[in-house]
Amino acid sequence: MTKNEIIEKARTITDLINSKWITEEEENFYYKEAFKYFYDFVVNSNAQWFKVNASLKDFNFEKKHNKTIYELPNDFYKLRSLIGYNGTSAKLFDIMPRGEIDTSKLGYRLSCDLENGEMKDHLTLYNEYENNFEDIEIEYYPTVDTIYSLNNLPKAFNGEPLAYYMAKCFLAKKDKENQQINNKYFELEQAFIKSLQTDNNKFESISNVFSKKGGFR
Description:
217 residues, 11 strands, elongated, 5-stranded mixed sheet, 29% helix
């Protein structure tokens, strides 16, 4: 479903087709809110949808003693994995817990730091192990603002739950509630969560990662 189809579906559910009760500005606001709500399910499940793959070679960096600090792109939201490649072999990097620096480990740490008056995301790699790899790839989820305007969502990212989320918001503005809509929404939300599949065939899931929006998880 496209963005316009999702909005039209939400209006149809709530009998608000052609109604001026919900403005275009409010439509966009509720759409973003719905998208962000379900996008976080995708991110927290470690699913493949929307992820971005990039080489650290493409990022600005600074070397300091036993570590290298990389400046992450502005659209960075949450890390999915960090992988070192050497020929056909690959190695998953481990996160360094806060307060711990063990140079014997192949480790990294993420931080959000004030730099020239702006908050910047950084990734720090510890020890010389990074020199053992031909390339180091980062998989991350971009900020929702960079993707919510996609006209055609991935097929698996079904638009119907978003439409029912928006329908609930439309009704809330009118201080109304519809149990049938609530029940259908709950059913769709649960089905959406169950549909999220983590790719366990490539590398293990990373659970303790840093999120700019929510700190360490």
